[in-house]
Amino acid sequence: MLDTSGRWSGHFWIEGVVDCGASVIVDLTADQFGYDPVILADRDDDRYRCNILSSYEPLNGTERKWGYGLFMRAIDTTEDFKFAAAA
To answer: CB of 30 within 8 A of CB of 39?
Structure first.
């Protein structure tokens, strides 16, 4: 994610498609990059880049493990929610 000072950092967010068909990003921890705590943004928001750019700082093992654990906890709670699959 591109923070408010212009630096790219490793980050995790949720992507999906809402009922109207718009592709969106939901970021629940954007405040660590100088933004509001929760962001609902268009999928094309320039602050978010999937995968690695040449100036990107790769995730370390701790960040990767944390992100995977967060993902697995989210998957365990999805039976209570209705999700639209991203195309």
So the answer is: yes
